[in-house]
Write a structure and sequence with these properties.
0% strand, mainly alpha, 77% helix
């Protein structure tokens, strides 16, 4: 364990990872989503694709705990279950792609996915059709696949819930439970297919304490009446993280 700990603390760019994780915790604690869109570009800039996904998932095992009890009471848990059915089926296919992808391609993919989603969010794009059971499972499947290829489980589900008439408190709770469930499923799958990097998991769990603090503060700030202002700030943070994560800056 001391050797693993030393390797974890020697990770290049650690200070930037810590900052990204704290800011991501603030955003997720308030809005219920957005943390991966902040963490992944930063992680992809200094870690290999598999390590970046492991790091993000490990930090997010601890981070959401301050808001878990209230999310469990508030969420539409049937919807979360449907999302996870799709995610579990599709996740292995995404991980298969992840295990062989070039890190530069991975870095571009992560940042461009984040920027595309951000543009859709900021322009107010909405799906106008009816949200069906199959559509919910399909969004979960696409989220599971995207978890494998980019560590970003949220975009399809975020876009799905933009069409929902559910209260923002329920949507936020659904996001929190879905994203935590994805992380819990991801680790045993990675272990079974031989992609675990334990020093990165240790690093993620350690930095997860910072995520925990950010989530706690973000949860205290949650106020539906202040949603527009906070999301504007979150959009700026997400855009900055995605742009700084582009492989362009590596030369």
């Amino acid at each position: 364990m001391p050797d693993i700990l030393a390797q974890a603390l020697a990770t290049e760019g650690l200070i930037w990872l810590v900052i990204a994780v704290f800011v991501a915790g603030l955003v997720r604690g308030f809005a219920g989503f957005g943390s991966a869109m902040i963490i992944m570009p930063a992680a992809a800039a200094v870690l290999s694709p598999v390590e970046a996904v492991l790091f993000m998932s490990a930090t997010e095992l601890i981070g959401p705990l301050p808001n878990l009890r209230s999310a469990w009471r508030t969420a539409a848990r049937r919807d979360v279950s449907l999302l996870m059915i799709g995610a579990v089926l599709a996740l292995p296919f995404g991980l298969w792609w992840l295990s062989s992808v070039n890190p530069v391609i991975f870095g571009w993919a992560v940042s461009l996915i984040v920027l595309t989603l951000l543009v859709l969010l900021m322009t107010g794009w909405r799906f106008r059709g009816e949200l069906t059971r199959n559509m919910t499972i399909g969004a979960g499947a696409l989220g599971g696949f995207m978890t494998g290829i980019s560590g970003l489980p949220g975009p399809p589900v975020i876009m799905l819930y933009m069409a929902s008439t559910l209260p923002i408190s329920v949507i936020r709770a659904n996001f929190l439970l879905y994203l935590l469930a994805i992380d819990l499923v991801l680790f045993p799958v990675l272990w079974l297919i031989g992609l675990m990097v334990w020093e990165i998991v240790v690093l993620g769990l350690m930095v997860g304490v910072v995520n925990f603090v950010g989530n706690a503060v973000g949860g205290l700030l949650f106020n539906p009446n202040a949603e527009r202002m906070f999301r504007t700030v979150a959009y700026l943070i997400i855009a900055t993280s995605a742009i700084l994560g582009l492989p362009l800056w590596k030369g």
